[in-house]
Amino acid sequence: MAPRPSNWDPLLIVSQIVSLQTLHYLTLSVLIPPLLSLFAEPNSLHYEGGAANVGMVMDWREMAGRPTVRGMQGGERWSLYTGAWSGGKRVGYGFREDQWDGRTDPMRGWIIAFCWMVASGADIYYLYTVVRRPRLILDFALTLVFNHLVLTTYYSASLPSSLFFWLVILACSVVTVIIAEQLCVKREMTDGLSVVPLNTEPEEMEMGISRMD
Fold first, then answer.
1. What angle do CA 104, 63, 97 make, to 5 degrees?
2. Do 46 and 141 meet the contact criterion of CB atoms below 8 Å apart?
């Protein structure tokens, strides 16, 4: 008995993973900057690099509402020459103490979390069109989340330790997997149904069934 051909295609799988990860971050990059510019507190946002700073997408502390700046402090007073650092780079400097007191903006985290929820809805479409097969949806969705955890840990130089961050990521993943799988299953069931003309002879129908088997 001849061996069955394998569907394993490493190049295809890698290209799908890269495509999904790129589309996910592209969606976040389109959503986050304008919403932060409209609704976030401008002084602290500008001090940390602005709404278009890559840390707003890659740093888990932004969603968690935790400070991402570091530097020398004199007691409770921020040094004028210290600046803000994100991802190992200086992204803000030159602020006086009366312009920003070092506190984080809680609205920023809610905005980023909302953008993640919207992006998870876009991920459903990406999985539906790129992956297509229902049994692979879970694997690719978890791979996307795992890759982000690795990247955000590397970028922030710390493991995510925020319960809010984990709840948002978990909720987005569950919704994405459930809906994307259902849509792919529905498409396969629809594509698998064949309409037989009324004037088809019984012998032709049996032959067609035997070919499908």
1. 15
2. no
Distance, in Å, from the CA atom of 2 to the CA atom of 209, rounded to the nearest integer, reads 23
Report which of 170, 160, 136 is spatially closest to residue 20, judged by C-alpha positions. Answer: 136
Say if strands 77-78 and 73-74 run parallel, antiparallel, or are unpaired: antiparallel
- Tokens 């506190």, located at residue: 103
**Residue of 56, 61, 36 lying closest to 153 (CA atoms):** 61
Residue type for position 168 = V
- CA–CA separation, 68 and 17 (whole Å): 29
Question: What's the pLDDT at 203?
Answer: 52
Other C-beta atoms within 10 Å of 143: how many?
A: 16
The predicted model gives 169-196 an average pLDDT of 86
Q: What is the pLDDT of residues 38-93, one digit of tens each?
A: 999 888 888 778 899 999 999 999 999 887 765 434 334 444 334 455 555 555 55
Give the pTM.
0.75
CB neighbour class for 134 (10 Å; exposed up to 12, middle 13-18, buried from 19): middle
- Hey, what amino acid is at 129? T
State the Cα–Cα distance between residues 138 and 153, nearest whole angstrom: 22
Question: Tokens 């991802």 appear where?
Answer: 87
Rounded distance, CA 72 to CA 64, Å? 23
Query: Residues with Cβ < 8 Å from 116, sequence gap 6 or more?
Result: 28, 63, 168, 169, 172
